[in-house]
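User: quick one, fold this
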Amino acid sequence: MWQWIRNVSRLAMKELRSLFGDAPLMALIFFAFTIAIYSTAKGVKAEVANASVAIIDGDHSALSRRLRDAIRAPYFKAPVDITQQEAGPALDRSDVIFVIDIPPRFEADVLGGRTPAIQVTVDATAMTQAGLGVVYLNQIFLKELLDFFHQKSIESLLPAQPVIHFLFNPNNQSHWFTSVMQIVINVTVLAIILVGAAVIREREHGTIEHLLVMPVRPSEIAMAKILANGGVILLAVMLSLWLVVHLWLQVPLAGSVGLFLLGTSLYLFAVTALGILLATAASSMPQFGLLAAPVYVVLYLLSGAATPVESMPQWIQTIVQVSPTTQFVKLTQSVLYRGAGLDIVWPQLLAVAATGVCFLVIALTRFRSMLARQG
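Assistant:
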């Protein structure tokens, strides 16, 4: 046993020297856990922000101007005037997302007790902006119309009023969510790429033959690659979570960072074993890239990091429970967002560890076969 540990340690040091000597990979790790996280967190927004609006004002009344002036930043850009003929082409070119058509005699019809309609045409290809933007515009128009008639709000007329409390993200800031989820995404792709590249690199550089003549076992070679590459990524995650997410982006960390890093360690064990498994099925780096890309995409899209698992079809919800990425996303959200402890997330820890063991057993079987063919 001690000999196995010593061999793994020596091989892991060899892997670290090889990794640190690979400038492109080190640059990729630095970029993935710094600039990529910050730019994604600030650039990808789930809320309405700076949505473009055009207005066809057929009334030119005080009320229509009041509605126009109520559409303000930061949710919307300043509305631009447009004609009926220009509206369709502007939507086709994606120049605007919303076209608001205020009909002639709008204020007169409102004051006369009639029910004129304001038409809002929406470019729904901008899904987030379109869906939430319509709700925002409806609230803005309703408030301005009530103020115009000096009426109380509708809520004040209700016999009971809901009191809404936002937990864990009271201001609904999307970068609180996207920054942490981007760490999960980067851990997944880098763990697969680094370990898979290490296996392919041994084969392409001919150093696999050097390992075959050494008194080491396949399990020692595989574990050294897992520990070395996983350790580097774990260190990058720890620094990124504290320096980039917490200090730079000002995202509060509600739970135990130590518990999150424990979960990250188990998850790295699982995905690095998956990376070795994929590398044994590819004969070259291009083949490995083509094989790893769809695997990563499926793991990410069905993990809950981009779309809640609960919104997926029931049969997909059942299948994705065996994915370590799904369990890790659930663990990350519970610990860092909601402050959950070990008593809450132990099923996710157990599931990720069990998946990692399964991947490792299959990977070692194929790794032994690959080494036997090389020999």
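User: anything notable?
Assistant: The chain has a mean pLDDT of 87.
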